[in-house]
Amino acid sequence: MPAEGGTAGRETHTGTAPRDAATGLTYAEAGVDIAAGDRAVDLIRPAVASTLRPEVIGGIGGFGGLFALPPGRYHEPVLVAATDGVGTKLDLARTSGRLDTVGIDLVAMCVDDLVCQGAEPLFFLDYLAVGKLDPQQAAVLVGGVAAGCRAAGCALLGGEMAEHPGVMEPDAFDLAGFAVGVVERARIIDGTATRHGDVVLGLASPGLRSNGFSLAREIIARNGWSLDRPAWPGASTSLADELLTPSIVYTRAVLAVIEEVEVHAVAHITGGGLPGNVARVLPPGTVAVLDRSAWSVPRIQSELAAAGGLADRELVQTFNLGLGMVVVVPAGGAAPAMEVLRAHGVRATVVGEITAAPPGTPAALRMDAV
């Protein structure tokens, strides 16, 4: 198969072939266009090249991507891996014809998982499945992935574009990704250092990030809203603008905090919201107590909650309430950590503290009611 990716290993399951009288039906007649795949590869080369790191070995065309850990840089390196998708946010992107940022969402969902354990992302692989390959569309989608990789500082090492005629509708597509990072074994963040009196920092997230879109789409459908209507009465942005706001890639900012401040725990607020993600990074015998008056919920989330008649429990477990990540630091580290985050363009505030529970009690999250 022709290779596409960032210096190695992106394959395309696509191309045209003339009918051979001896063999009959061609692959192209079955709906797979290899020539379109080749055109897509050519279109994305510059975007992929823009993500390269010095550790990448070789050029485009290999079956696998090569990445060499620099000798002497790590004492005891541990590789950390994560994989994810964008979910049904993709459907809103397809419907609105705005495909340039969902690749950023994809990268954010993966690399911001890695940094929860203190890992620096090294490289990324993406998988694009389509009903019928449109080279320009593929270039836009992969261009978004490349933009996310640049934001995270990782190489887009390769990937796959697969055409699935007869299985997917011609205009349908799906996007998934896989990231690998590295952390020194002695610097792995696993939450065990968390103590009573630690401070919880909330990192602001506009929009919905990439979770809760199935519920959002159902609310939109039941209310008969169009994506080009104002996001709310008097809004200067459309519903599509708010829903397709790309996810912030927090990785570099959090890594910078880790270099400057003692960090005890990091949680990426994805599916399950704050309740489903904060307690999982805390040790037994601790409770994270959050003050919901300490930060603002994005207006789009409040509007969706009102339009859907969501109970507060449903809102809290589905959306992130405006916090994309939380970082737990000692009380004395809160101010310097927030200064580092601000220097990296990330708004953060103290949203709570860690309190003690009876020894052996499972870690828990408690949030003040609104």
Structure explained in plain terms:
This protein is an alpha+beta fold. The protein has 11 helices and 13 strands. The strands form 3 sheets. The protein has a 6-stranded mixed beta sheet. Strands 1-6-5-7-4 form a 5-stranded mixed beta sheet, with helices on one face. Strand 2 and strand 3 (66-67) form a beta hairpin. The chain is globular and about 75 Å long.
Brief sketch in words of this structure:
The chain is an alpha+beta fold and 370 residues long. It has eleven helices and 13 strands.
State the strand order across the main sheet.
9-11-8-12-10-13
CATH architecture group name of the largest domain: 2-Layer Sandwich
* Total strands: 13
Q: CATH superfamily of the largest domain, please?
A: PurM-like, N-terminal domain
What summary fits the major beta sheet? Answer: 6 strands, mixed
Beta-strand proportion: 15-25%
CATH class of the largest domain: Alpha Beta
Question: Uncertain runs with pLDDT below 50, 5 residues or more?
Answer: 1-9, 13-19
> What is the mean predicted local confidence, pLDDT?
91
Helix content, binned percent: 25-40%
What is the helix tally?
11
Q: Given the helix and strand composition, which structural class is it? A: alpha+beta
Could you state the order of secondary-structure elements as H and E? EHEEEHHEHEEEHHHEHEHHEHEE
Number of domains: 2
Shape: globular
End-to-end separation in angstroms reads 56 Å
Rg estimate, integer Å: 22 Å
From the 3D structure, determine the CATH topology of the largest domain.
60s Ribosomal Protein L30, Chain: A
